[in-house]
Amino acid sequence: MSRASAIASAWLPVALFCLAAAVSSAFPIGGETRGQRGEMPRQSDRFSNVTLYTQHGKAVHFYDDLVKGKTVIINLMYSGCGEICPANSAELASLNQLLGQRMGRDVTMLSLSIDPLHDTPQRLKQYWEAFGSKPGWLFLTGSTRDIERLRRELGAYDLDPVIDADPSQHAGYITVGNDNTNRWLVLPLQMDTSQLLVTILRTSRNG
Amino acid sequence: MVTRRTILQWGAATGAGLLVPLAYRQGRVLASGLSPYTKSGLFFGYQPFSQPLFIPEVLTPLTGRSRLDPVPGAYPRPSGISGRPRTPTGNFDEVSHGIAPEFGHGPQEWNRFKSGFSPGDTHEQEYELVTEETTHRFVPGGPDVPVFTYRDASKAPGSGSTPGPTIVAEYLAPVVLRNKNALTAGRSGVNSTHHDVETSIHLHGAHAPSHSDGFPDFYVLAGEARDYFYPNIAPKLTDPDTLVAPVRGGEFDSTWIPSTLWYHDHAMDITGFNVTRGLAGFYLVFDDRERELAARGVTPEIGGRDRFDQALDVGLAIQDQLFNPDGTLLYDFLDHNGRLGNVFTVNGVVQPKHRVERRKYRFRILNASNARSYELRLSTRQKMCIIGTDSWLLPRAIEVESFQVGHGQRHDVIIDFRDAPDEVYLENILVQTDGRGAKEVDPSQERDMLLRFEVSGANSSETRCVDGTVIRGFKGIDPDGQFSFIRKEEIVGTRDFEFNRSLGAWTINNRFYNPRRSDATPVLGRGAERWILENNSGGWWHPIHTHLEGFQIKSVNGQAPRRERRFNSDLVMLEGGFVAEVYAKFRTFTGPFVFHCHAIEHEDMRMMGVIDPTPGPGGSTDAIFTHAPMDGETALDPNLSGVVPDCADLEREQRILFNKVGDTERAADRGVGIPDCKFDMSERGNQGSNP
Ligand SMILES: [Cu+2]
Questions:
Q1: Closest Cα in chain A, distance from residue B108 (Å)
Q2: Which residue of A has its CA nearest to B350?
Q3: A36: in domain
Q4: I need a surface site. Which of B164, B278, B292, B523 has the fewest CB within 10 A?
Q5: Does one domain contain both B559 and B684?
Q6: pLDDT digits (tens, 9 = 90+) for B334-356
Q7: Mind listing the pLDDT tens digit for each residue in A110-123?
């Protein structure tokens, strides 16, 4: 290979990657609070501030009202889901119980319906009541388009389109995030309850 | 129920997903033109192969007055050296995470230099590293990027590098590495994350005590210190009649003398972030055979007993990186698939050049990437002479035109440039476009150029490393041969592990990692086990790694693996649908240790299991199975495993009360792990206020 062609071919990937980077991997920088070199962009910078509706019928903005400055436990569910969602909602209910008075104060649970056409606020309220009307636990619905956008921003998709099209495949884990410390992680809900709890508490720490 | 219409709608949305531009919150707009790439596609204007390769310094051992103070194991503790570590105090010098009980209790023969390794040394070689944030330039003239580094504690703060300093150790010469974690939320040094970051150092390939192995929640907490004890031993040989390996006494198993190790972060839930940010380095072990190979001219000469010539023996850590528009490192915590980079770095710099002469060099090639595998070759198609895979030297050298190096794997190769043209590229021909796994080898592709060797000088006439050149040699065949295969007759049982994907997460035998549960409890030092590792997760690739001991790969999909992978490995690449059969022994140290997928985002999502070798009965295999069932799981034995015994004990003795925010974290964060405590806040009051 000649020197010239070696260099040309070596440049090529970077040029190709440039497109990929613009589409898939750019965090927005700048805006009101950040943009200083050296500050890490926030994971929540990629969340849309879409309008959602709680099980109590209240309109809320996803970022401003639910995530900003908080520690959240987010899961995807839908009330018509056969076996997976009820088992996982039961696990969330027991975590809620264990977290006690921290719920709503230090930690919030956000259960996002990925079947918003059927999951009206009323229906989600029945679901919430079925799992004990626990405090600090919001069930959320919204427009199909907004929910789909959030699902992708939360990384809750499968690279295999067939699996991705099966909503039950997105209901197996929780996304735990602390917007103050910008620390986020994903945990399978079928993990040991104590382990889930300890990790949630570690993530919820301030500073 | 979900209607067909809903599913169709989902399918349609999925197909269009990649084309939908990312939407941002109101008021947050991506500034136009802000990108790390110039119009011509260059990364901050960097012309590939115009900056030199970075070679990390060799870490200097502490001698004389600079030796560790307090001395290892002698710092204040509630009940002496074997006592439990204290509740973290935030004082580095307390070494609150302690040292392995095996330190000081290890048998004499663990130290071949009983009379002293170097003047003044009576026992161990000592080192000290500080984990801290500093800035790093990936390209000349590019931005100063915050990274995490392991810094030589005797050097100025901020002077650390990525990769970290290379640690050069001697076989059977123990090392104590004190590590201080300065990644605090404002209590020490710079930390642009503004929160406490837990760390845990795993010495990948080492045969070391559990306390020192970087078990995921045996943390080094921010503001705390831990003494890592590395005996640098091989396991003891197994008696051919009784199949028992003595914990003390007997000969070392020369098959497993360590050679090319690397140390990297392994902290539970945050390993991907920490490793991406730079927490990795080389750890090389030399022994008499290494010196003999150099004397024979098979490997380049090494200078002195405990030194090596970095000009001729070069570590190459390959990592693909992702950047934000401002040039800082991009880490998407919610990318479950695996972080696939789009900029190639070697030893922390983008596409470097490296000057070499027309002679032979040794390269320790490490794939330090989170989710990418490589098939590496030279642009000249010249053969490379592999002398070691993963942590161990091969019995005999194997020449190949290309080799696959999965994430976490190492290949120790001799490249002889005597007939090389002026420029030779190290290139990757494995095509991978997402975190799932590689697609195919494309020998025609010339895209992934990692490194340019700039060759000069006259040909030197040296001994060649060729296919079949004796390295460790086969025991009983080659003169002074050291390598033996684990024999079928030594197998006392078979375990099956199925690696799967379920509901958006990765499972091992349908379970997720729990640091307090043992998923494999072999009888310590008894025979060998046959593990069947099966990947049923569709197209996902899972590189499976075991701690404490490596294994020998007997078959992959019923066939012999690639030639260079038939000996010792600590990592087997399970491509989609692959089944591997490996033989392993579990000797010397009781657990807990982990085995796991080395795709780090999978690991962080708990695709791990626990190995806890425990002393057990001799005699029949029935007795062994009763003691340690092959298909079952057992609770970790706290007395053997160094786990705090019970929750009441924690509350009483350690004054950790689960009644206010922060206390449970302290319990979990003590760095020795906690048992399965009842954390019911409603029962325990939970009256504390939010700090
Ligand atoms: Cu994996």
A1: 40
A2: A14
A3: no
A4: B292
A5: no
A6: 998 999 998 999 999 999 999 99
A7: 999 999 999 999 99
Ligand 1 centroid to B603 CA: how many Å?
7
DSSP string, B637-669: -HHHHT----HHHHHHHS---TTSTTHHHHHHT
Check A197 against B269: CB less than 8 A apart. no
Q: Give the range of the structural domain holding residue B613, as residue numbers without chain letter.
A: 488-627
Q: Looking at the domain assignment, is residue B430 inside a domain?
A: no
- Quote the CA–CA distance of A30 and B35 in Å, as a whole number: 12
The size of the A-B interface in CB pairs under 8 A is 300
Q: Which of B665, B681, B689, B690 to mutate to test the interface with A (most CBs of A within 10 A)?
A: B681
Mutate to test the interface with B, among A32, A118, A198 (most CBs of B within 10 A): A198
Secondary structure (DSSP) of A158-177:
-SSHHHHT-GGGGSSEEEEE
pLDDT the model gives residue A197: 84
- Cβ separation of B14 and A164 shorter than 8 Å? yes
What is the reported pLDDT for B27? 25
- What Rg value do the Cα atoms of chain B yield, rounded? 25
Domain CATH for B562: 2.60.40.420
What does the pLDDT average to over A30-37? 32
Q: How many domains does chain A have?
A: 1
Alpha-carbon gap, residue B86 to B97, rounded angstroms: 7
Question: Which residues does residue A76 pair with via DSSP β-bridges, in sequence order?
Answer: A112
Q: Which of A13, A169, A204 comes nearest B503 by C-beta?
A: A169
Q: Is the pLDDT higher at A4 or at B41?
A: B41
Rounded to a whole number, what is the distance in Å from the CA of A33 to chain B's nearest CA?
A: 10
In a domain, B446, yes or no: no
**What pLDDT was estimated at residue B282?**
98
**How many CB atoms within 10 Å of residue A51?**
13
Residue segments in chain B with a per-residue pLDDT below the cut of 50: 1-34, 79-83, 85, 115-121, 639-646, 649-676, 678-691
* Element spanning B271, H or E: helix B271-276
The predicted pLDDT at position A39 comes to 60
Residues of A in contact with B10 (CB under 8 A): 164-165, 167
Q: Is A82 helix (H, G, I), strand (E, B) or coil?
A: coil
Q: Which of residues 129-168 of A touch B (CB under 8 A)?
A: 144, 148-149, 152-161, 163-168
Which residues in chain A are closer than 8 Å to B423, comparing Cβ atoms?
3, 6
Contact B272, B604 (CB under 8 A): yes
Residues B515 and B621 both lie in one domain: yes
CA-closest candidate to residue B448, choices A10, A204, A110, A36: A10
Query: Is the ipTM reported for this complex over the cut 0.85?
Result: no
CB contact under 8 A, A177 and B333: yes
Q: Let me know whether B573 and B687 are in one domain.
A: no
